[in-house]
């Protein structure tokens, strides 16, 4: 890949030795010859397998659970319910003071999405665990469910998550994350054109080659070693210790080699319950998602609905931008309150707009909880923002790249969230991409720089 | 049947590290008596090449050959705390921690070498090939391994260092949204070229050409791999993927790779890219995070290229052939009616 060294040459020295060299990745030979050891390559003696009994309903009250037939099923060692989990209710981001705890490790008296874990079956073999899962009888009373983010916010909508008391996350007493910069109404009034558009995405799977999983081994000294493909060892360790109500030093996480993450392995779902199973049986326990669980039960990228209203001048300047974003968190918070704030912080995109008004809603619905995924908060926002930019460029009759250059942020510009821009380079990437693709730019566009704004 | 071509553009920026900061990483570095340097972390390599990037950063900051740096990760009993591998943070956060640890270790290394060579430490330079030279004195040098041995057996010193990077956490003003989401932003622009089959609505992506400004490419080849892999994921997000094909209806969710469709090798476009470097003021050697953002610009660039080709806006992802075809038919209907 070519370095374009002409840009920003004055800000850079090119005298490094190890940095900047394209050496071969140190672990690639192991990966392509199958020699790399992943967590699942361990096979400790006496290992048990954990499989979940999952809710077939989107929203239902649990009336009765009968695990007697499953308990006497061949090879079943133990079946865990919510009362076996020392601190069953948690939320992952409590480690950075996000409240409230809103999710059970195992369902208590209600299920809030299809696939929610109700009981954990631990057996001598995977097949035995699966067979026992099928023998568990759960009586449910189905409840009305809500799946649309705007429907969920209407009065009278079914309440998804009682820990919040309403179908949205609360940001320091506000029902959404706000950004206020200038006065959008004045901006719209002064604009030559005002347009509003609606954008929508659907949930997306991380699709790693290696599904989420772990193997927990109880050690002779009373500690637990957890071999995991988590993206964040201490995040998992800390949350697991809180759920199990054990001292942090009782747990040891080993990982570091993962077959694809993309954000899907930042949740802390498989480790705590597998650790509990290992503690209670004093045997190694493996809990690994099947591909079906990875696709339908583990958190996807949130679906988002984004409304963008823009006021633009005939000369191409955007003078006001109002955004309403709904992130579909599904039944539980996981990382969605964080992602929704990240979306708000990203607005109005890398453009300098004097009047900006942003409301980003983190909304609960009866679907699989969404969570972290590559660029969440930004990826779908960029889809909406950049399609909107194309519309605006055509509306005012400007080349799409030049239209972006008119509005692109420059060093020294004030951003909507109140920080002064520095280190900007949007203009230059557009110039370089245009050159690469043979997209003709005007002399004006070629002269533009991120260092200062030229009239 | 007709095939219509179009091209579209998108330009984006992306913050490096956890939004609002407050995400620490630590690193410990020590020299063994074999002349190796062990960098102990609890960072996770997801397949993106973290171990190699950290090796290169450590080697550069220590002034030693890359092959003599061993990355030891990830075990919570031995590795110092790291927030995790996400939010395009590891090259920046963990990289910074390694630079700090390596500087401390290098200082000891040069002090010991200075005593061995009977010169001042300020007069020493490393050549990155395993030797420490006295500036301006031809032939007066000592190897790193000799220095490490001397430190251990003669001087009774550890050649080691501790590194920590913690960006200050920002708390947003709940009313105005005033905050510091990040201090470092990378940039990208993608130009997509597509061909739309107006009979079926099928979209073929012909090329994705991108420019990325990422501060400093620690390993340009691996940056390229991120850009190509991310462009593939972006294309897949744009045209193929969802776990809920009738969202918000919850039914018909795919459960395997037969049902969850993604572009295969035959669907891949031409990828081309260039790298720009405007070093960040706070990254290791100016580096910014490039991991996540590489999926972002291709999505709207493809959507805009489809509009350029057939005049149809599809504002919901994924942009399936069905949606494109319905758009084309609706447009033809309008044209027929007028």
**Contiguous helical run count of chain A:** 13
Radius of gyration of chain A: 26 Å
Our estimate of the beta-strand percent of chain B is 15-25%
What oligomeric state do these chains adopt? Answer: heterodimer
- Tell me the number of structural domains of chain A: 2
User: What would you give as the CATH superfamily of the largest domain in chain B?
Assistant: Aldehyde oxidase/xanthine dehydrogenase, molybdopterin binding domain
Q: Tell me about the biggest sheet of chain A?
A: 7 strands, mixed
Q: Residue-averaged pLDDT of chain B, rounded?
A: 97
Q: If classified by CATH, what would the architecture of the largest domain in chain B be?
A: 2-Layer Sandwich
Termini gap of chain B:
23 Å
Q: From the helix content, strand content and strand pairing of chain A, which structural class follows?
A: alpha+beta
Task: List the domain count of chain B as a whole number.
Answer: 2
Span of the ends, CA to CA of chain A: 34 Å
- What strand order characterises the main sheet of chain B? 1-9-10-11
Number of helices of chain B: 6
User: How many distinct beta strands of chain B?
Assistant: 11
Key terms:
heterodimer, A: 455 residues, alpha+beta, Aldehyde Oxidoreductase, domain 3, Aldehyde Oxidoreductase, domain 4, seven-stranded mixed sheet, 13 helices, 18 strands, globular, B: 338 residues, 2 domains, four-stranded mixed sheet, 22% strand, elongated
Describe the structure.
The complex is a heterodimer of chains A (455) and B (338). Chain A folds into 2 domains: 48-142 and 207-296, Aldehyde oxidase/xanthine dehydrogenase, a/b hammerhead (Aldehyde Oxidoreductase, domain 3), CATH 3.90.1170.50; 177-204 and 302-423, Aldehyde oxidase/xanthine dehydrogenase, molybdopterin binding domain (Aldehyde Oxidoreductase, domain 4, 2-Layer Sandwich). The two termini of chain A are 34 Å apart. Chain A is an alpha+beta fold and 455 residues long. Chain A has helices at 28-33, 68-71, 126-135, 149-152, 184-190, 233-244, 270-281, 291-296, 336-346, 379-395, 400-407, 426-437, 443-447, and strands spanning 2-3, 48-54, 60-66, 76-80, 89-90, 103-104, 110-111, 117-123, 137-142, 177-181, 193-200, 213-218, 224-228, 251-254, 285-288, 304-312, 318-330, 356-364. Chain B has 338 residues and is α+β, with helices and mostly antiparallel strands. Chain B folds into 2 domains: 3-16 and 183-337, Aldehyde oxidase/xanthine dehydrogenase, molybdopterin binding domain (Aldehyde Oxidoreductase, domain 4), CATH 3.30.365; 25-165, Aldehyde Oxidoreductase, domain 4 (2-Layer Sandwich). Chain B has 6 helices and 11 strands. Chain B has helices at residues 50-62, 90-117, 144-153, 220-239, 298-310, 321-337, and strands at residues 3-15, 25-31, 37-40, 69-72, 124-126, 131-134, 141-143, 160-165, 185-197, 203-213, 270-276. In chain B, strands 1-9-10-11 form a 4-stranded mixed β-sheet. In chain B, strands 4-3-2-8 form a 4-stranded mixed β-sheet. In chain B, strands 5-6-7 form a 3-stranded antiparallel β-sheet. At the A-B interface, strand 1, strand 10, strand 11, helix 6 and strand 14 of A face strand 1, helix 1, strand 9, strand 10 and helix 4 of B.
